[in-house]
Amino acid sequence: MKGASSSRSTALAQLDKYGSIAAFALLIIAFSAISEHFRAGSNYMNIIVQAAPLMIIALGVNFINMAGESDLSLGGVIGVCASLFCGLIGKGASPLAAAAVAVAAGLAFAAVDGLMVAYAGLSSFIVTISIMFLSMGVEMTYSKGASLWIRDNPILVIVNGSILGVPNLVVIALALFAASYILMHKTKLGVHVQAVGQSTDAARYAGIPIKRLKFLMFLLGGLFYALGGMLNSLRSSGSIIYSGQKLLLPALAITFIGKTVLGSKKSNVPGILVGALMMSAINNAFTMLGVSFYFTTIVQGLVLLIAAGFSVGNRKTILQEDLR
């Protein structure tokens, strides 16, 4: 009896640790078996390219989650940054100047979030959802409710070009992923941020500057929202109105899936890569198969439900997750 119970516990532990990765592998195998176009080598690279902007944005959310806070402001901030970037380029500004303005906007909104949450002690959910609506209004005001296109512009070489056969977008995304991993998992700063996210009381007793670190994570989030928003707009040859709102739920879904990777049950950088690739693979496969777009969201929802099962592992009760 004890042996059976022990074996069951071991099996559940393995499922808890590797379940989400196994589910991802099974998805790839299934899609590859169904569609010869999906299993083409060039398409695997295309999946990574499609996942790149959303992964960058999800990394921004992840910084804030690791500090123990949630952030919904990306739903508007991404759109503002993309609109400013494309709008200024359309008016003749240099891409570098336009990028600087977009990044400054992302950091400005993030600074407001950070000040009100970290220093004023307000709810991150309320503050960031307020900033989301505020920034959506700014985007609408600046763009006058229209998408801002930059077709046939030399700046598009960033997403159309490659380095040694590897698309520029993949190189940029992987570089940011590597930098994020090193920062959050291999430095003293990252250890302190994770300590804050796990227990503010313990972090306070350890002398960790909680407010400063939370503020810094909001700034990093704003920076990555700006970068992801600009790259996403370049892939679309322009800023589509309310583009951030369309990326909000997928980005949050990626951060949730990321918690299930290797049984971590907490925000981590490697999980963001797995989550982004999983969501991108589903979108790509359904496009290849000619399936209506609304079925894609159904499957993504089912994947999240499965991820929820993996995230609770061998617990006897399923606890409701918050946005962190």
Describe, in plain words, how this protein is organized in 3D.
Helix 2 (41-66) packs parallel to helix 7 and helix 3 packs across helix 11. This protein has a two-stranded antiparallel sheet with strand order 1-4. The chain has a two-stranded antiparallel ribbon with strand order 2-3. It has a single domain (18-312), classed as ABC transporter involved in vitamin B12 uptake, BtuC. The protein has helices at 2-34, 41-66, 74-90, 95-119, 124-143, 157-160, 168-185, 188-198, 200-205, 210-235, 243-258, 269-288, 293-312; strands spanning 148-149, 162-163, 166-167, 238-239. The longest helix is centred in the first third of the chain and has 33 residues, at 2-34. The chain is mainly alpha-helical and 324 residues long. Residues 313-323 have low confidence and may be disordered.
Sketch the topology as an H/E string, one letter per element.
Answer: HHHHHEHEEHHHHEHHH
What is the number of helical segments per DSSP (H or I, 4+ residues)?
13
How many β-strands, per DSSP?
4
Beta-strand content: under 5%
Q: How helical, in percent, are the residues?
A: over 70%
CATH architecture: Orthogonal Bundle
What Rg, in angstroms, do the CA atoms define?
Answer: 20 Å
The 3D shape can be described as globular
Low-confidence stretches: 313-323
Q: Given the helix and strand composition, which structural class is it?
A: mainly alpha
Determine the CATH topology.
ABC transporter involved in vitamin B12 uptake, BtuC
Order of strands side by side in the largest beta sheet?
A: 1-4
For the termini, the CA-CA separation is: 39 Å
Calculate the mean pLDDT score and round it: 87
Number of domains: 1
The major beta sheet can be summarized as: 2 strands, antiparallel
The CATH class, by name, is: Mainly Alpha
